[in-house]
Every structure is written in C-alpha cells, then in structure tokens.
Amino acid sequence: MGAQLRVYKRRIQAVTATKKITKAMEMIAASRIVKAQRKVAASMPYATELTRAVTAVATGSNAKHPLTTEAETPTRAAVLLVTSDRGLAGGYSSNAIKAAERLRERLAGEGKEVDTYIVGRKGVAYYGFRERKVEESWTGFTDNPAYSDAKSIAAPLIAAIQKETAEGGVDELHIVFTEFVSMMTQNAVDDRMLPLSLDEVAEESTRKGEILPLFEFEPSAEDVLDALLPRYVESRIYNALLQAAASEHAARRRAMKSATDNAGDLIKSLSRLANAARQAEITQEISEIVGGASALADATAGSDK
C-alpha cells in the first residue's frame, strides 16, 4: 500500500509543477493582450483613412488600376493565411486553417487557381505535411508583429497583383486571419484585399453617415493609385497581423486558464485518492498490530496453562 501512496504523491507533484507553468503562461498572455489591443486600436485610423482616400481617388477618376479594377474573367487568386508560430493556444491556428480551406474550395469552385502564402509555423507545418505548394512563408513574429514584417509580406503580393496572370500574376488578393472581437471571442475570417470593392466601402461610409472627401490629383489619378497601392496593402496586412496577435494571446490565455483549472481538479482528485490510500495503509497497520497483540495474548495464555 505504501508503494501506491508514493505513486499518487509523485503524480501530485508533477501536476502541481505543470499547474505552475500553465498559470505563468496564462498571466504572460493576459499581460500581452492589452499591448496588442492598443496596437490594433492605433492602426485602425490610418487604415480607415487610407481606404477612404483610395476610394475617393477611384470614384473621382476613370483610371484602371489593379487596386480598384475587377478582371473580366479572374482565373487566379492569392491567399495569405495568418497562423501562429507556437502552440498551446487552443484551436486558434486550426480555425484559421479551416477558414482558408473553405476559401480555397470556394475559389476553386469559381474556376480560380489559388497561390498560397503563409504566416506562422503552424500553417507552414500543415501545408508541408500534406506536401502542398506554398509560394512564400514567413515565421518568427506572429505574437509581436512589426510594420516591417507587413512590408516584407506585402512586397511579393503586390508584385503578383501587378503582373499578368500569364506571367504568374494573380487577379485577386485574399487574406485569412483571426479577427479580435473581445477577450472571449475571436473569429477566423477571410477578406478580399484587392481589388477593392468600392460599392462596399461607399455603402459602409453611408451607413456610418460619413462623406467621402474630394481630392485633386497631381500629377494624375494613376500616379496617386500607384503610390497608394503598397501603402494600402501594407496597412491591411499590418492590421490583420495585429488582430491575429491579439487573438493568439487571448486564445492562449483561455487555453492556459482551462489547463490550470483542469490541473487543480486533477490535484484534488489525486489528493482524495492519496488520502484514501493513506487511510487504508493506517487501517491495515492497526489491524496487523491488533492481530499481533491478540496472537501474543493467546500464546501467553496457553503457556500459563
């Protein structure tokens, strides 16, 4: 019975050590969420105003540009998938991958070939295990992205949208990332970055009661759109990376809290089993002592006769 008690004690010690680790990871993730939320909030005004400026240029001119012009028969699309570099975040990366798979199926159903670009080791491992082609990938910064990371990601995507499809270019740019709604809610979404849907932007501005500004273009609307194209793509990618980072920290905090709570429940269960084993051991020792004393008394009584 002593051996069983030692087993329970070792398991309690192991689970207690694990609980300390998950609790520390939960606290770290919670502290990083606030910083990530601030970055998301700080990036929103720039992205919003840039989108409004692009819309104003496009609606105020007849310029044909990859930023705003739909292809007559789109045949190729690029999809940027944003996942995590690390695990222990629940279903964060798997939900984004599932959203990308659904988008891929939808685009394929529309007769479009899909070029995949991936951010995060989890997405790279998923596609690598299935031996699927990935145009480019980026890792090492998903939990704390910088604007320079967004620029490095945007460069090949901009080059692809500016090429003809016959030369390896694409007609559309899509991004799949996890949108941060609240501490408890993060949704994997897919969004088309290019071409920009002017009707949707105008409708959203009307719904918010905003009036699109009027601009004069120098030297021309085409040159303005050429200058705004990289800024627009970079800002959209940067905002998506920041939202994904906040979502990753929130998902990791929730997962680590669940792991900590489960470890606490397991410690309680093991403690009850250890107490039962200790009680059984004590009971057996008492029984052995009583039995030995009784046998000794019987032997003594027999010798007196």
What does this entry show, briefly?
The protein is of the alpha/beta class. The chain is 64% helix and 11% strand.
Number of helices: 6
Q: Can you tell me the overall shape?
A: elongated
Biggest sheet descriptor: 5 strands, mixed
Q: Provide the helix percentage.
A: 55-70%
What is the SS-derived class? Answer: alpha/beta
Rg on CA atoms, Å: 31 Å
* Helix and strand run: HEHEHEHEEHH
Record keyword descriptors for this entry.
5-stranded mixed sheet, single chain, 64% helix, 6 helices, alpha/beta, 305 residues
Q: Could you please describe the fold and organization of this structure?
A:
This protein has 305 residues and is of the alpha/beta class. Helices cover 64% and strands 11% of the residues. It is built from six helices and five strands; from the N terminus they run H-E-H-E-H-E-H-E-E-H-H. The protein has helices at 2-59, 92-109, 121-129, 147-162, 198-207, 221-304; strands spanning 76-82, 113-119, 136-138, 172-180, 186-194. A five-stranded mixed beta sheet has the order 3-2-1-4-5, sandwiched between helices. Helix 3 links the parallel strand 2 (113-119) and strand 3 (136-138). Helix 1 (2-59) runs antiparallel to helix 6 (221-304) and helix 4 (147-162) crosses helix 6. The chain is elongated. The two termini are 39 Å apart.
